[in-house]
Design a protein that fits this description.
alpha/beta, Peroxisomal Thiolase, Chain A, domain 1, 2 domains, twelve-stranded mixed sheet, two-stranded antiparallel sheet, 10 helices, about 20% strand
Length: about 400
């Protein structure tokens, strides 16, 4: 497999707003988008803080015919995909009939849609359950709906690997481009802010019980007591950098390297598996540790998981040798969308020469990582490493680098 894969379009939807023009400035500014849950009454639950998408009116972003058949997460995915294709100035209709495809990642599926239909089943009977329940809950539904709406008839797929799945989906898209496709839409979307999904997350005992948003998500901090969930979507348009089809706009950067490993019998991977994924991703990109200018860390905010990640990063780069950031502290852990958001932010950071901050965390003075805290840090950037770990032992690492201007 040969050939470069470049990112030409970015579509973001999260607690900072809709679209890159809304999300990126707030990220650089370090604004906390976490707040008390409003999508349902969480007052009776021990966890009440999350990152919700503000002011999202589905009818303003997707066709009305899709409203009855889609869960909230799919509406976010469709919106982000539309933004990404528009940003890329891409016209899939101009490509060969099977020259463009879709690969997405999902973690939870359509929880909110499923809860609503189960309530109808219990209270009114099976005749009142929507026929769209047959697919609206399904992990692959985002891929299908994006493919149908934009007439993308090439390869289609879905990856389910919790947080790590977002990077894995982008890697699958890269493989398809290397095999000759012209364009892929790829990314992740998740929304788990309904009672049924909330209870499922509480059962894992990894989400924060903090009552204040500024204390809810503190990775690499001794006060860390779990992460704050978020909802959102992050979609990319990825094209062949050396393909026959013209690229209308200057790429954000290149997906230069990727690797994944799996740790057995662990909730979230230990340091050895993640370190190996980093080393393999660097080798795939033909880069040395000294070539990486910033690391976008997974940042679970569970002490033992953070300690393992810090050990892996320090083991590859040396203690405090490379800036590390966790900007998802502002919008919550977006599950499958989280690492794709980090990829997008890494590419924007390369473009603008600025590293977005990790907010609210205060590492100990002897912490092995150079965590960018408080405010954004200006720095010339040529390459970035993005890390993601999924529940069950999944580790993924991806390298992006600036393209020649």
């Amino acid at each position: 497999m040969t050939g470069s894969a470049v990112v030409t379009g970015i579509g973001l939807v999260n607690a900072h707003g809709l679209g890159t023009d809304a999300v990126w400035p707030e990220t650089v500014r370090g604004r906390n988008g976490l707040a008390a849950v409003e999508r349902f009454d969480a007052s009776r639950y021990p966890a009440r803080i999350a990152g919700e998408v503000p002011g999202f009116v589905p009818e303003e972003h997707i066709p009305s015919r899709l409203i009855p058949q889609t869960d909230h997460m799919t509406r976010l995915a469709l919106t982000a995909a539309e933004h990404a294709l528009r940003d890329a100035e891409a016209d899939p209709a101009s490509l060969s009939e099977f020259g463009a495809g879709v690969v997405t990642a999902a973690t939870a599926g359509g929880f909110e849609f499923g809860q609503r239909e189960l309530e109808k089943l219990w209270s009114k009977g099976p005749d009142h359950v929507s026929p769209y329940q047959s697919f609206a809950w399904f992990y692959a539904v985002n891929t299908g709906q994006i493919s149908i709406r934009h007439r993308l008839k090439g390869p289609a797929g879905v990856v389910v690997g919790d947080q790590a799945g977002g990077l894995d989906a982008v890697a699958h898209a890269r493989r398809h481009l290397r095999r000759g496709l012209s364009l892929m839409v790829t990314g992740g979307a998740d929304s788990t802010l309904c009672p049924w999904a909330w209870v499922a997350q509480l059962a894992g005992d990894r989400i924060t019980r903090a009552a204040e948003p500024d204390r809810a998500y503190l990775p690499f901090d001794r006060r860390a007591r779990g992460y704050a969930p978020g909802e959102g979507a992050a979609m990319l348009v990825v094209q062949r950098g050396d393909g026959d089809a013209p690229i209308p706009r200057e790429p954000y950067g290149e997906i230069a390297g990727y690797a994944a490993t799996f740790d057995h019998r662990t909730a979230v991977g230990g340091s050895a598996g993640l370190r190996k994924a980093i080393e393999l991703a660097l080798a795939d990109a033909s880069l040395a540790p000294g070539d990486i200018d910033v690391v976008f860390a997974d940042g679970h905010a569970v002490r033992r998981f953070d300690d393992n990640e810090a050990a892996a990063i320090a083991g590859v780069f040396g203690a405090r040798r490379v800036p590390v950031t966790v900007p998802k502290t502002m919008v919550g852990r977006l599950y499958s969308a989280g690492p794709v958001l980090d990829l997008a932010l890494a590419l924007l950071a390369l473009r603008d020469g600025v590293i977005p901050p990790t907010i609210n965390s205060t590492p100990e003075p002897d912490h092995p990582l150079d965590l960018v805290v408080g405010e954004a840090r200006e720095k010339d950037l040529g390459a970035a490493l993005v890390l993601a770990r999924g529940y069950g032992g999944f580790n993924s690492a991806m390298v992006v680098k600036a393209t020649e201007r």
